[in-house]
Amino acid sequence: MNTRQVMELWKAWKADGVENPETLPKHVAIIMDGNGRWARKHRLAVSRGHRQGTEALREIIRHTDDLGIGALSLYAFSTENWNRPQEEVAALMQLILDFFASEIDELDEKNVRILILGDKGALPEKQRETLIEAERRTAGNTGLRLNIAVNYGSRAELARAARLIAEEVRDGRLRPEEIGEETVAGHLYTAGQPDVDLLIRTSGEMRLSNFLLYQNAYAEFVFPEVLWPDFTVAEYDRCLEIFAGRNRRYGGRQA
Question: Which residues of the chain have a pLDDT value below 50?
Answer without folding.
Answer: 1, 18
